[in-house]
Amino acid sequence: MKVLKLLLILSLSFSSILNAKKNKDINNAPTSWRSKKVKNHTGSRSVISNKNLKENANQNIPQSLQNVPGIQVYDTLGTGTNFNYSVRGIRGLPNHSMRLNNIPLYSPY
Predict the structure, then answer these.
(1) pLDDT tens for residues 51-69?
(2) How far is it, in rounded angstroms, from Cα 37 to Cα 29?
């Protein structure tokens, strides 16, 4: 019985060490869209630069996001104050959010 408990404790501690290493790797994401890791990534990304904002004369963030492929912006109330965002490939996931400088763009309540 003691051997079984010892094996269980060792296996749990080993798995927590492996998970800690995985989490450490996740936190090393590139912080700039200009980095080589981002440019060589096989996924897609869209960058809205200051030049794009000036050329398109966007009045707000939802207008500028409508120019990004795969993003649809819906004005739910028709007043221009409550927007919902739809991203192609992310269907109804409750945990996704749109953020600008880590500030939520809308509240789902």
Answers:
(1) 887 888 777 778 888 888 8
(2) 9
